Amino acid sequence: MSDEQAAAPATPTPAAAPSPPPPPAPDPAEVAFREEVARALGTAAAADTAAGVPAWRVEAGGLLGAARRLRDAGFDYLLFMTAVDHPADGRLELVYLFSRFSGSRHGALLADVPREAAEVDSLSGVWAAADWHERETYDMFGIRFRNHPFLRRILLDEDWPGHPLRKDYVDTLHDVVKRPY
Amino acid sequence: MELTRATAAGQPGTFAAPGYEDYFVNMGPQHPSTHGVLRLVLKLAGETVLGLTPVLGYVHRGIEKMGEAMSVLQFTHLTDRLDYLSAHINNWGWALAVEEALGIEVPERAQHIRVIMAELTRLASHQLWWGVLGMDLGAFTPFLYGFRDRERIIDIFEKTCGARLTMNYVRPGGVTADVEEDFAKDVGAFLGYFAPFIDEYERLLGDNVIFQERMHGVGVLTPELARSLGCTGPVLRASGVDYDVRRARPYGLYPRLAFTVPLASAGDSWARYQVRIEEMRQSLAIIRQALDAMPAGPVRAKLPAVLNVPKGRWLSRVETARGELAFLLVGDGSAKPWRVKVRSPNFSNLAALPEIIKGCRVADVVAVLSTLDVVIPCIDR
Amino acid sequence: MGLIGRTATAVKGLIGGMGITLGHYVRFSEVITQQYPENRETLRMAPRFRGKVRLLRDPESGAYRCTACSLCVKACPNNSLAVKREKDPETNKFKLAGYYYHFERCTLCGLCVDTCKFSALAMGNEFENAAFERGVLTLRLDTPDGAPQPAPEAP
Amino acid sequence: MDNWIWRTEKIPPAVTAWLTGLLGNPLLVDLAKMAVVAALLAGFVSALALALVWIERKVAAHVQQRLGPMRVGPHGLLQTLADGLKLMSKENITPLEADRFIFHLAPLLCFAATFVAMAFIPFAPAIQAVNFNVGLVFVLGIGSVGVLGIFAAGWASNNKWSLLGAMRAGAQIISYELSATLALISVIVFAGSLDFREIVASQAAGWWIWRAPVVGFVAFVIYGIASIAECNRTPFDLVEGESELTAGFHTEYASIRFAMFFLAEFVNIFLVCSISATVFLGGYMPLHIGNLEGFNRLADLIPPWGWFFAKTSALVLVFMWVRWTFPRLRVDQLMNFEWKFLLPLSLTTLAVASVLATAGWFFFPG
Fold first, then answer.
1. Domains in chain A: ranges and CATH
2. Number of domains in chain C
3. Which of B91, B288, B353, D273 is deepest in the core (most CB within 10 A)?
4. D 238-257 near B (Cβ less than 8 A)
5. Stated pTM of the model
């Protein structure tokens, strides 16, 4: 571990963080895609404003319905399903990345669940790919999925303490070297 | 994991006569042909496989957790350790995610180098796949021929990037360093050398009647199951679904390159074999085009000292030799990503194995696993 | 085509395969493997091969180029570098007092050499890095004679 | 076969005379002869096995464009010896719940079967340990004892993979013995006798492979395929399919017991090839072409056991060549190939052969 320097020598202070890229002029195909998904999802979903992947936020309970509507609208390809931990606002954000085998556009279906004892419907009925991805999300975040065919840990041992990808996870087994940034 | 009949088989009910005790055999985690540390719990009735349950996680290193503790530039070297047979393409995928997030423009020459390196990696990966497929079916010689040709590519990588397997060469903003001066000569020599050898591969294994018998009709993957499971890559294209990220969502130089995406429809091991052999020929054509049109110029874009990932969610999708690799990069404005999710192609392809292997023989498990061409570290991350 | 036709093509395929192996068997001088320990002297790695990191000296003054700015320490993903510095009384600037290298943690990714502004670091060509005990792998690189010494006291 | 140079028939009487001179009592002389022959045979076969292992590794190496063993001795000649010593120095492990007696018996069964069968092979006119008038049947019978060894090994090592290997071995070897025996019989029908010497004598006018019009060659090919299956070699090596059963029936064996299985396999190859050479290619008969006296005289210069080894090693090389080219069959394909293709073919060959033999429609009926 590098020792704590008293005062950093006169290295140039890092340049100001690059200003976020100017929002690209919305090309028609992108807009058309967003409308198509919005129409498919109906009123239950609200478009998310974050930069990057076009995303729609849904109630945790409405996930199964939204997934079925997407599936019928032709989105037959679930890239993956995972969760993002936001301990500050006390929520776990489920992210379902859907796309089409025929088209090139992808979108994200978001749902917020409480950080403790979260329980959501399993989408393995809609997309079989969700089966293993949900097992991994359970393994890493501790979110349970109702009527999932075989909900077990997929990567870690059955008796592994805790769920590693949560931000507040403390690894008791290995002395994880905390980086001195 | 306490192995009960339910947990192992995953499917309730037994096939054989009443009072017949299910016969479980562990193929792995230490087994000559599981391509890494993968344990398959086979439920057998004699030689016939009734059920198969993969047990994963033996090579889990927590790459996604490490991604949250490292800067964007440092995580690149971890992506080589995902699918160790397509290091360049993994690096490229991560570089695309970061470039999209930070809005970095990559110089033209770097785009050319990236395509050539990616296609060379795909070739090297398919050569290794072909050799190991031969060995899994009992013929040892193809393994040596596959590695003999792969060594030529690895030498090119060693000369250019300095490493043989963990390249860490393609970086956000371009590539680490310009190629060697005799890079064009070496790659040109390789293209000329390897073209006839694909035919030799065909003659040695493809035309062999024993090989054909072992491949035809074994492990049939229907297009519906493949779509639903999210299988991608040669496994999906062998079942007739025409989906290749290089065509569906072009990136880098691919829009300007002329190449066809090989397709088959049977969905069995023979179709997967044919698709990959044809892909090797296509890769040769792509490298030739990219090499001839390579311009001079810088190979790295000017990057700020600290790469802060702005707030938001970014996704990059690339086509590795095994399927679609996607990186989800969630930023919160600091130098370290808030969440990194790696979508592994092998994870979904392996999910198809328990369904397509029912009723096959023990020897077919090895054959089908070899044509699915899964790499275990990419599954376990 | 009938049984005869299928058998004929089958035999032709088998003979074709055997032709290839016979072809290689007959040309037994074409050998693709290297006899590793025997060819140790003639074996050369590529100039860019990323082996063990080493400090570079300034050709004129013979001193190490490293100015202990510890940019490389920040750049290393695996915490395998450590720099000790002390204030030089006269010039009142910081001087390198110890450059430690935990080789057992290094993944030879080359990021340190890449970020060093004073080109004071380079990666050697050694690929035989095995050791019998861990102590030998914690090195101090800025030794007078240039050969890395095991340094158990490294931070 | 008045081989005017190599008087091998004189050797046995010379030895007997020398021993009677030494020991006097005829009972002792017979015992001494048996001891000498047994020692010679055991020594020869072990050296042969070591040589075959080395040849196999060199053939594999050059087929795969590498050098093969090069370190122990010039061109790795002593490599197999080194392996043997290494195996002997290894610990002799017996798995915990293994069926101890059968576990120890299995390698002996395999090894003894091939060694006993080697006693009947005619290397030269008089150089043959034992000569039965039903030599061929006896050798085939002893050959099938090897299956018991494999079965016992698979069952006794208390390992699921070994059991799978043993089940496959049982099914495979028993089925392929059928077409092997039928192929041999379709030539015995021509030769008229089961004694190896008579078989070779009957080929004085010409080898059975071409002398019996088409039947000879077809029988030769069938016997070749069936004998590859009998030695459990690719494309039929399901018994110890490395990529499936890790090492099949001899997974749990270590040190000297593993060496026994290993050597038994190679001696088995030599045994099967020598039977094929004796029955189809005229054993120790030099190659005579009609009335080309000059050529025949030249051919006689090579000793009979020279001819025997030339033919047998040619066949062994073909075995090895096949092994390093073909992938492995699946169990059900193996069975289908034998029962639905090879057996009908060998039955028709036998029928045609017997018709040809009785009607005398073959070259030089004499």
1. 28-146 (3.30.460.80)
2. 2
3. B91
4. 238, 241-244, 246
5. 0.90
